[in-house]
Amino acid sequence: MLSRAAILSGQNSRALVAYASRASSATSASGQDSSKGPLWQRPVRQEPGKVRMGFIPDEWFTFFYKKTGVTGPYTFGFTLSTYLISKEIYVMEHEFYNGLSLAVMWIAGIKLLGPKLAKALDKEIDAYEAEWNESRVQDKQGLQDAIEDEKKNQWRMEGQTMLVQAKRENVGLQLEAAYRERLLEAYTQVKKRLDYQVEKQNIERRIAQKNLVDWVVRKVKASITPDQEKQNIDNCIATLGNLIPKV
To answer: Residue 9 in contact with residue 120, Cβ under 8 Å?
Structure first.
């Protein structure tokens, strides 16, 4: 039993290593995503079939049940052994006793060391699997970190897009302010020129009016004779005399 367990464990270990190498090469070649599930399953350690007396398969016993009942296999075995030994078909020489001693030691080794060896082999396989899973988990964590970094970079790019949009709006406001400032400057300059023209026309009108008044006054003064002027002075004096209150 111990040898069969050791052989099966060694075969499973070699098969596991070979299958893992093929799975890793197939993964690198095909580029499949490991997030969809494991590409291989760990082979389960196969336990030997059920036996009786440590080496006789249980099927040999169940074969006799339908014909002879439960005691049939034991009777057949005892009868056959007695026949072989009595007819000296099977000679029990010193090799027999050596084999019997080896069988006892073999059974004792299986019973005492078999579970410990199986446990050690299972532990070694678990260590191999943990090492492989650790590298896979690290790769997966690295990919997840890369995805998170990419998301953060995309978020930063969105912020940069908003910043560029804000700068564009700021530039638009600056252009609008410059346009309004230049429009006000043009309005001021045009107003100054129009005010200049209006003031010029007003001055020309006042000068023309003053010249016309002076001309009329000169003409009127020129048309008044000395007698009219004396008469007007006398009338004024008389009017002033009438206006003075009498004491």
So the answer is: no
- The 10s digit of each residue's pLDDT in 37-92 is 556 677 777 777 788 877 788 888 888 888 888 888 888 888 988 988 888 888 77
Tokens standing for residue 74: 């034991």
* Mean pLDDT score, 190-204: 93
Alpha helices, H only, the chain: 2-30, 58-68, 72-86, 94-223, 226-243
In the DSSP assignment, the letter for residue 246 is P
Cα–Cα nearest to 140, from 37, 243, 247, 11:
37
- By C-alpha distance, which of 167, 164, 186 is closest to 175? 167
Residues 6+ apart with CB under 8 A from 6: 117, 121
- Residues 12 and 45 sit within 8 Å (Cβ to Cβ): yes
